[in-house]
Write a structure and sequence with these properties.
The chain is globular. It has 2 helices and 8 strands, in the order αββββββαββ. The protein has one domain: Immunoglobulin-like (Sandwich). It is of the alpha+beta class. The longest helix has 17 residues. Strands 1-2-3-6-5-4-7-8 form an 8-stranded antiparallel sheet. The N terminus is likely disordered.
Length: about 140
């Protein structure tokens, strides 16, 4: 009976082992597209992300934007360094400096993309609605 109880505890504990958090870092920087964007794009920031199961949680800060932030999203690129489509929204301070936070429930393919370095955070601002800061989620 004691052996059965011990085996039951092992089975119960096994899922928590597979749910151990994976940690990622994000360095938010500008990526000017052309010389004209130097007047509208500036700033930097950082964030950390934790994946538990399929839930990706992100917290971070930014500073030095030339206009107030309007949105922050997690995007999935087709390759590392290549822009892609948004997959989730984050909360962001509507200011030139502040915080970013939120979580996104990922699909199995998006978890794979995260582990392959193809997910990134994009911060848009009033003067740079196509994106002011970008940062790839990397280990």
């Amino acid at each position: 009976m004691l052996l059965t109880a011990f085996a039951g505890l092992l089975l119960y504990a096994a899922p928590s082992v597979s749910q151990s958090p994976e940690r990622y870092k994000v360095r938010l920087t500008t990526v000017p597209m052309d010389g004209g964007m130097r007047n509208t794009v500036a700033g930097n920031g950082s964030a950390s992300a934790t994946l538990v199961g399929t839930k990706l949680s992100i917290t971070g800060t930014f500073d030095g934007l030339k206009s107030a932030a309007t949105s922050a999203q997690v995007h999935s690129g087709v390759a590392r360094g290549v822009r892609g489509n948004p997959i989730g929204n984050l909360e962001i301070a509507k200011s030139t400096r502040g915080s970013i936070s939120g979580s996104v429930d990922l699909t199995a393919d998006q978890v794979k993309s995260l582990r392959e370095g193809r997910l990134y955070v994009e911060v848009a601002s009033e003067k740079a609605p196509e994106g002011n800061l970008w940062g790839w989620l990397l280990k």
